[in-house]
Design a protein that fits this description.
The protein is mainly α. It has one domain. It is about 70% helix and about 0% strand. The protein has 3 helices and no strands. Helix 2 packs across helix 3. It is elongated. The relative contact order is 0.10.
Length: about 90
């Protein structure tokens, strides 16, 4: 999923406001530092998701036959490879 810098900043502000309103959350840093941390996490996660998507598309493209995007077969193969890549990249692979 591609998000603009403005959308990421907007999301970081929404997340920050939710954290600030939650009485169970205690924080010891400047609010702007928290927001910048949220921006970094969002950006990093979106980058990982993009890398996973590219790896999955490359794997599907390496098949000996043409699997057309948008077909049920493509969706099934994509989801299988996506789950494998996600486990691998997130260190969940046993």
């Amino acid at each position: 999923m591609n998000l603009t810098r403005e959308k990421i900043n907007q999301l970081s502000k929404v997340i920050l406001q939710s954290l600030l309103k939650d009485e169970r959350v205690e924080y010891f840093v400047d609010e702007n530092d928290m927001r910048l941390g949220i921006v970094k996490v969002l950006t990093d996660e979106l980058n990982v998701e993009e890398e996973i998507d590219q790896a999955v598309r490359k794997a599907i493209g390496s098949y000996g036959r043409d699997i057309r995007e948008g077909t049920e077969e493509w969706d099934i193969v994509y989801q299988r490879h996506y789950a494998e890549q996600t486990k691998k990249r997130r260190g969940l692979d046993e």
